[in-house]
Structure formats: structure tokens, C-alpha cells
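Section 3.1: Structural characterization of target chains.
Under the original work plan, the team committed to producing a structural model for every single-chain target entering the pipeline before any wet-lab resources were allocated. The record below documents one such target. The sequence was received from the expression subgroup and is listed exactly as submitted; it comprises 82 residues.
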Amino acid sequence: MEKRIGTITVLVTDRSVTPQINEIISSYAEVVAARQGLPFRDRPVAVISLIVEGDMDQINSLSGKLGRIGGVEVKTAVSKTL
């Protein structure tokens, strides 16, 4: 499969699941090129943005595992080709 570059945005509304999120992201370290987290201290929400590079199976797997966690919303955007 050909590699693609993309972004995964993770909206966390239940901060108690943060250890689960971190474990999943760490297990995909070979796909994650960059990570940025922004906790909104005055609201019960946090945003994590990931820059990823990998084949569609890897990117979809990471996105899917994150999206199956309760209290988490995930949006993915991927380049067409490199």
C-alpha cells in the first residue's frame, strides 16, 4: 500500500479516558509524526491533533481505535496520494 499524510483530530469530553488514548497513540508511534494537545481548562474538553504518515490501513486502524473510546470524537483527513 502507498503511504499517505494526514491529520487526526481527537476531541476528548471525558478526561478519565486519557490513559487509554495515550496508550493507543503510543502503540502507533511509527505512524505518528507529530502530536499536539490542548486542554481547555475552563471547559470539560481537550483537543489532541496528530500528524500521521502511513498506509490507509494503519491510519484507519489508529483512528478507529480512538473513535471506539467513550467520550472521544475523532475526525480524520488524509491526502489523496504522495
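The radius of gyration is 13 Å.
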